[in-house]
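Changelog-linked ticket: calcium ion example.
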Amino acid sequence: MYTDFRERFCLATAVLHYTAAAVTDRGRKRPSNEDAYGLSVEHGVYIVCDGMGGAAAGEIASSLAVEEAMRVLCARDGDESMALPGSAEEAVFAANDAIYSRAERNPRLNGMGTTLVALLARETGVWVVNIGDSRCYRLRNRRLEQLTQDHSLVDEQVRLGRMTPAEALRSPLRNVITRALGTQSSVTPDIFEIETDPGDLFMLCSDGLTRELSDPLIESLLSLDLRLEELCARMVNAAKKAGGHDNITCLLVRAGG
Ligand code: CA
């Protein structure tokens, strides 16, 4: 009994360590890559952004968002006392301001914006931050679960029961997102905590991946027993093979015991 208790106790308080890898690719149709990502295993910060507003503007928006959010979140520097939802909000607001004010100064960049999905990893679990239609998934025991909700017109219609998921995929309005970073002077992110077990695999990705690959295919690819770098490459290559219509980014984070 005593051993049993100790084992369960140890599991409940297990300190999680993370490994990560990422790949971004222009895809097969677009002339440039407006996706951007940032990662710091040391600080437990992982971000994927998908820019919009025309090639140059989209690239500027997504890279500014990654830069600003990384700067704020990595400056915490192991300060566990600073509540994560607060610093996640601060990072989002800083990124929003940076993009919005740059666009105000330069009319050619008017209307540029970006999605942002981030994973903030702690020793006891992770926080997810989301604006737009990039996504965060978790693979646990070979079962895939989408953790974020898309801020898109079609996804909102599906949630309201006015559209089926199949109709949403085909809809001409499927590119319309209802929340983005940098397009307005303020923004409201989704920020939530996810309980984490050793072995959990998280994927952050842009819609260039999820438009090409079905959830069952993503689930089977992520279940392969491969190094994270190899898994990222497989995911991106599969999306390119399926059409590669858009830029593709895949960032994987594994929680280890
Ligand atoms: Ca995209």
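Closing comment: Example verified and attached. The CA atoms of residues 32 and 186 lie 28 Å apart. The pocket of calcium ion is lined by residues 50, 206-208, 246-247 (CB under 6 Å).
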